[in-house]
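Notes from hallway chat w/ T.B., transcribed later so I don't forget. T.B. wanted the structure written out for a chain they're using in a teaching module, and asked if we could keep both sequence and structure tokens in one place. Agreed to drop them here.
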Amino acid sequence: MNKTFKGAFTALVTPMKENGAVDYDGFRALVARQIDEGIDGLVPLGTTGETPTLEDGEEEQLIRIAVEATAGRVPLIVGAGSNSTPHMEGYVKRARDLGADAVLVVTPYYNKPNDSGLIGHFERAAAAGIPVIIYNIAGRTGRNIPAALMNKLADIPGIAGVKEASGDINQIMEVIEKIALPRKDRGAPFWVLSGDDSLTLPLMALGGDGVVSVISNLVPRRIKALTAACLAGNYEEARRLHYELLPLVQHAFIETNPVPVKVAMNRAALAGTSLPAGPVRPPLGPLAPENRAKLFAVLEHAGLIQGPADST
């Protein structure tokens, strides 16, 4: 594998029209803006993209647009997870055949597989011949991948790294120290990307490679600046950016992702920024009025809107 997965990657929202249909033109515009703003890579069809509610045909069209719009300028990591191993294999092969650079495969959710089941699941993902980024997020799946098991998974040919969203800094340190750094030393990188915007700075300071960010849907240039400062070893600047972004990060998760970030994008769009987002699909619902007010106050402070408005 000769792909490089480091820096700022955006977990793309899926823009929707008011009638609930996918806004494909909006998605194309969103991808173009991300690249224009200097983002290092894109991740469509993740949790932020509302994949549990997307139809297969919608997903395929979104992949095709992302491949066409990126045109090889940045790495494209396509979400391809499922709690059914055969379904996951089909999604991985679809992403490969449509031109993705890598796939993001989440730990199977709800059925909480044992260690041998997880190893078999990721072996079958990697067998498709496209780099696989493991997505470890116990808060949504009910199953954490501890460092010892991650080490076994990292030995599978084709496993390229992990989006680490356990929220456990001790586990993250162990993954970097015992898995990622030794492999990089011998020329076989295992990329470690933060799955939490708030942990981008500490993860990268410990030797990690970047972030798969939600708020970079809104401020890609700022997230790119944070990761670039970390990669350059300029941690004074990175700390400044981290604390500048922190209120925005915290309020982007004031309710279930991607509800707040879509509201923020819609509000910023009213201020003249091209940020197509639209509504969320059920079972997600509107942001609570009191949380909308808090979010708008943070957006105003960040210079993304001119005064709060009573609009989503």
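Follow-up for T.B.: The mean pLDDT is 95. Might be a good example for the class.
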